[in-house]
Amino acid sequence: MEKAVRNLWVEARELMRQGDLGGVERLDSPPSPLRFLREYVSANRPFIVSGAATRHWPAISHSLWSNDDYLCNALRNCTVSVHLTPNGRADALAPLPLPSGGEGESITKDGTQKRGGLCFASACVRSMEFPEALQLIKATGRALGPSTASVVAYAQQQDNCLPGEYAAVAGDVEAHIPWASEALGCLPEAVNLWIGNDRSQTSFHKDHYENLYVVITGEKHFLLLPPTEVHRLYICPYLAARYTLSSALLDTGTGGLRFDLEVEEPERQVPWCSVDPYPPSPEDLAVQMSSFPLYFDGPRPFECTVKAGEILYLPSMWFHHVRQTPDSNGQTIAVNYWYDMQFDIKYAYLNFLQSIEHPLSAGDSSRKKAEQDIKSNYDEFYNSVDV
């Protein structure tokens, strides 16, 4: 079985004509709708389009979104959602504390996971006026100097927020990507705005959408894996939890905020990727490499940097991890367009592939060992630095 799965990795990459070079194809201009559908959507192949595709957008051509005064004035009366974490890792795995006042470990109702291991941690979401939100995002990053903030703020509301919370500036970019809309026969289901700093990152995951991701300011750095390499990410169920703030006030001048991590009620499990390609310490990296060899010893992920004005086509079901480099103002701004994917026989094949247990990704023993070691190293590391 292991040999067959590894052969699948090689054959799939050869069919995408991208081999093991680790790059993503770049186009000088947008593809025609027919070429986009035939060569990329049907083939499930990513690509990047140069800034020529967006140079007519006012947000870019007039540098409107590089101007904090413009944004704060246009959105001065707008309340937006800001996602807060202690370390910039929302929707990611984090150590789950033991139940307060209890001894030892407690077990979930279905017995699948013990408290004290890792959980799927969602951000604490606060609503605030946009100027305050932008100030907080910038203040909790490192781009403008060493940060002692114990919170990282990221505007990443994924509910069609651009024409919603940010409607006042939605006209500065296209409402949809014309060549994609024509090829796919529909308008995007959601258009989202992202504003973050250099401490914000997104863990490996996949989406059931055809994703057109446009960077407006700064840069985004992607690691990509095709859906045929699902076993390399050791997907396991984790308890769902959410960060809460012990303080009702956000003071960007102090680092005294404290987060609690609380298990959602009723309890639920979230299937999530166990691999962290950029662990916070050398000790954690050693644990990751020994626990998840299919990722670290396998073919290199596709790597790409999407610069201001460029569009990344991220095919549905591709796994992606994202980091960012801010602009001179200390923030990275992007817009993404989610188009419904086609739930066809390829989707059924991929679900079947994921259901097959690879001998080296059969999860429990590797995950339990990794949880113990990572939690210990994580606590030691984050107790020794300002985060």
Automatic annotation (TrEMBL):
Pfam families: Cupin_8 (PF13621)
GO terms under cellular component: endoplasmic reticulum; nucleus
Any one GO molecular function term: histone H3K27me2/H3K27me3 demethylase activity
InterPro entries hit by this protein: Cupin_8 (IPR041667), JmjC_dom (IPR003347), RmlC-like_jellyroll (IPR014710)
Any one GO biological process: regulation of seedling development
Protein name as annotated: JmjC domain-containing protein 7
PANTHER family: BIFUNCTIONAL PEPTIDASE AND (3S)-LYSYL HYDROXYLASE JMJD7, HYPOXIA-INDUCIBLE FACTOR 1 ALPHA INHIBITOR-RELATED
Domain JmjC positions: 153-354
Family note: Belongs to the JARID1 histone demethylase family.
